[in-house]
Structure formats: C-alpha cells, structure tokens
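Section 3.1 - Work completed
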Amino acid sequence: MDERYSRQTMLPEIGEAGQKKLSRARVLIVGAGGLGSPAALYLTAAGVGTVGLVDDDVVSESNLQRQILYTEAEVGLPKVECAQRQLSGLNSNTHVVCHPTRLTAQNAHSIIDGYDLVVDGCDNAATRYLIDEVCAYQGKPYVYGAIAEFRGQVSVFNYRGGPRYSDLYPRPEILPPLSTGGVVGVLPGIVGCTEAAEAIKIIIGCGEVLSGKLYLIDLLSLRHEIIEINR
C-alpha cells in the first residue's frame, strides 16, 4: 500500500492520513457512462474504499467513443457488471458495488443512504433533481457534472450548508438546452475527472471545493470560467 499510493501520499495535502480517509470513503456514482467512466476509474485508482455504480443500461457501440470503461467485446452486456470487472482489476482493494437499476423516487433514499457522497454521471434533469433532493435530506454532498457538445460544467451542491442544484436551476424550463445531444469524446473525460478531483478534496478535506460556484468549460474556445451561484 505504501508503494501503490506513494505519489499521492507524498503530497502534504494528502499524506497517510488523507489516504486512510480515502480507504474508508464510500462514493456512489449515478450513471456509468461518459462522466461515470473516468470518475470511477480515478476514484478507484486513488484508493477509495467503496465505489457504488447505479445504471440499468447495457453497453452499445455508440458508447465506445467516450465511455472508456468498456470494450467492443462487451457490447450488449450490462454496464455495471463490465465496469465492476474493470475497476476490480484496477484496484482489488476497492469494493465495487453494482446497483443494476435506474435511480428512482422509490429506491433513491435506500441506495444513497449507504454512501458518503454522490457523483453525478447521469444525463437528465429529473435524476439530478432527485439526487439533489435526497442528498439535501440526508445531508450528503452532491458532485454535479453536465456536458453538451463541446461544453461542460461542474459544481458541488449541499456541501456544508452550501447551495443546491435547485438553487442553480430552480425550474426545469430554465435548464440550458441540449441542441443536438452530441458530444466530443474527450469532454466527459475532462468533466468526469474534475468531478473525481472534487470528490477527493471533499473526502480528504483539502483545497477549495466548488461549493457555491459553477465551473464552466468550453473546449472550442479553451475558455474556462468560474461563476458564483446565488441562492
């Protein structure tokens, strides 16, 4: 273990104490697709003790352009099962828990209750409002990420009394439109890794967490911007 994590435990912000926090942490990733793939890989590699995956979909050929957990041989197979094999092969010390279902009003409380924080890998507003509601009720941080075309955004909600997703988008009708549903393959990698970084900072208790702030990324212009979220 000392050798495996040596390149991050040598960082004063992490150290052995931070690594122990990671090993005890339980992170739920809702959606094992474009955002969930890099988030799950890097949280597992970092030594998070338990990673839960919620997804009821199977691997399709069109996923392979951006969902880096999967291979051509796995087309047609359940995503959570394929992801579990990949992540367990990456780090046998991480316990990977499969939830082969959609997150719904009926199961969200019981699933999220078993974790310390939630990472958003989903692709629809209804699930985000549900995560927001349950995390607020249970007092758990919600690491948010969204992508469209060449643009992405990341924030952290419900962190130490900070704003919620519903503060950023009070009503579904004011959500930014997704004009085509298309996305350049590298974008979810960048956004998903940023979500993983926020989760690690929350677990360890270091750095400046994106609570009350929305990080905006535009790959066409290479413009990055952080704006304040007003409640």
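Second construct:
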Amino acid sequence: MNDIVVSDAGPLIALGTSGLLPQLETLFRFIYIPPAVEHEVLCDLSRPGAPEIKEALLTGFIKRKKTNDKQALKALTKLLGPGEAEALALAGELGVDIIINGKKGRRVAKSRGITPRGTGAIFIKMKQKGVINSVAPVLEILRSNGYRISPQLCQEILALCGEDSSPT
C-alpha cells in the first residue's frame, strides 16, 4: 500500500465507527478526501464515526483536497455518486490508491488503473501488522452500529485473517 491514499466516505465511517481510524496512521502517512466526501461524513456529527473523522481532519491526518481534473470528474459523475466520483478523480490525478467499498466504484477504479482497497483489506493489514489482535470484534461493532457488510464478506475477511468464520 502507498503511504498516501484517497478515501471514499464508507471506509472512513467504518473505521471511525470501529474506533480504528487513529490506527490508520500505522498504514498511511495521511489520507486525502475531496469536498463531497467531507460533506458526506460530516453532514451529521451525531452519526457513528463522524466525531472521529472530524478529529482526524483537525489533527491533519485526513486532509481535504479538491481535484483539478475536471474532465475525469465530469466523466465519473455520470457513473457514480458525488463522493465516489470526486475521490476517484483525485486518486487518479495523484496516482495513488483509493479506499473504497462500493462494487461499482471499485470496478470503475480498476478500469482507470487505480488500485481500490476496501475496508476489509485495511482490517486484514491491521491484523497482519499487529495493530489489532482480532478482526471479528471489529466486524461485530460495525454490524451493531448499522454498518452494512455482507455475511459472505465477513466470512472471507475472517478466513483471510485465520479467524473462525463459522456463523455464530
């Protein structure tokens, strides 16, 4: 993984909700987010993850950055929502990976030569680096806070981490 990435809203919300947003500093020097993503994650500070994301912006770990690639942004806006479109345009402009969960956004990223990383991949990397001991409790925190993650994806993540992926 690169030391700088761009992130879409969903992964930031998941990491903020799970309490792992500060630990991202063990994987990345900092994270860029475009204005539409900032608006999406901070439009309601009572939502899970929002206070943690606001704090990361205040400390400078998450940095606001607007894309200058208007042509890419225009094309991406026809395919994706505002946050995903701005984030992908920015990642392409900077030549860095993107943290993004949506299937369509990941597919578009790959088609543009941008490496997409999902929240699950971040959790796996955190476990590999010893930042967290287990992924299962993190996934449970997300589910209990209403974060949508398929049971199949949970099982895949747990299996890749060497954790019991049998249903409980």
